[in-house]
Design brief:
Keywords (chains A, B): DNA-binding, Transcription, Transcription regulation
Distance between the termini of chain A: 17 Å
Shape of chain A: elongated
Protein name (chains A, B): Transcriptional regulator, AsnC family
CATH topology of the largest domain in chain A: Alpha-Beta Plaits
CATH superfamily of the largest domain in chain A: Lrp/AsnC effector binding domain/regulation of amino acid metabolism (RAM) domain
Largest sheet of chain A: 4 strands, antiparallel
Oligomer: homodimer
Order of helices and strands of chain A: HHHEEHEEHE
Number of helices of chain A: 5
Strand order of the largest sheet of chain A: 3-4-2-5
CATH class of the largest domain in chain A: Alpha Beta
Largest interface: A-B, 71 and 71 residues
CATH architecture of the largest domain in chain A: 2-Layer Sandwich
GO molecular function (chains A, B): sequence-specific DNA binding
GO cellular component, one term (chains A, B): cytosol
Number of domains of chain A: 2
DNA sequence: GATGAAATTTTTATGCC
DNA sequence: GGCATAAAAATTTCATC
């Protein structure tokens, strides 16, 4: 799973790019004491290795019309394969994340909606999926921390 | 909250950048039928407006040493302010997201850890926070969908 | 095996229409 | 918003440690 460990320079580069993925190679290089070409070569290699999956934009959900968020816990009927759950849930533009979990709940789906009315509609659609026995929703009141980007793990 | 609605061109640009934030303005322009300078002006404006908060890198958690994930539900003693919760939870490098929620639980914290041993240690640290009465953890078995980037909301 | 300096190509950033 | 241009950055080449 860790074919080659990331050296401290790679980690530093990733931290800079996590903060600003459009920083120039020269800027990253300045932060980590490396020349622009050296940074580019390391970034290219991190992409080849799959450590870097891509680059994306961080957007303000509210500015895009998403004013409501919730965790929808789903209890499945009988045994449903993760592949089935995934295929179903993937089709929802409103689904942020979906995870199978331990415990009495089978699936936790994080949903974004325009408003309560929209959220209700999404939950109803989810509840109507053939493998869904029952749902339980928890509304997000306040998003205190949102840090989706994985950073190099702190040392043990 | 929506000072000016995003027109379809802005939405298209954001979708391209969500997929590849390092695409050149010319590439984005080709996808949305606009010249490179026109794209740049719109992107600059979207940043000024705060719709675009920044650019970041998508990394493979496993390649970085994160092999375990969990939802830790936290019950608070008495009444704790969101600011207090936030300040506490923010200091954890392992915290991906934290949200105050409706229902019997007060706070849902999404945690990433190197392994079960590390997760246990993080949960113990959280449980020892002064405002925490009790925690309940749910381990993520399989991450079916991970789509952190907010995209333009589908029309009503 | 990885780096830095220099040369070349491409992109970005601006002024103008 | 497009076009043209100057400035900056990315990318390639090449020599070095």
């Amino acid at each position: 799973m860790d074919p080659e460990r990331l050296d401290p320079l790679d980690q530093a580069i990733l931290r800079v790019l996590a903060d600003d993925a459009r920083a120039t190679f020269a800027q990253v290089g300045e932060a980590v004491s490396l020349s622009a070409p050296a940074v580019k070569r390391r970034v290219d290699r991190l992409r080849e290795r799959g450590v870097i999956r891509g680059f994306t934009v961080r957007l303000d959900p509210a500015a895009l019309g998403w004013h409501t968020e919730a965790f929808v816990e789903i209890f499945c009927q009988g045994s449903t394969s993760p592949a089935t759950m995934r295929a179903a849930v993937e089709r929802y533009a409103e689904v942020v994340s979906a995870s199978t979990v331990t415990g009495d709940v089978d699936l936790v789906v994080q949903v974004r909606a325009r408003d309560m009315r929209h959220l209700e509609e999404v939950v109803e659609r989810l509840a109507a999926e053939p493998f869904v026995a029952r749902t339980r929703s928890t509304i997000v009141l306040s998003a205190l921390v949102r840090r989706p980007e994985a950073l190099p793990a702190p040392d043990a």
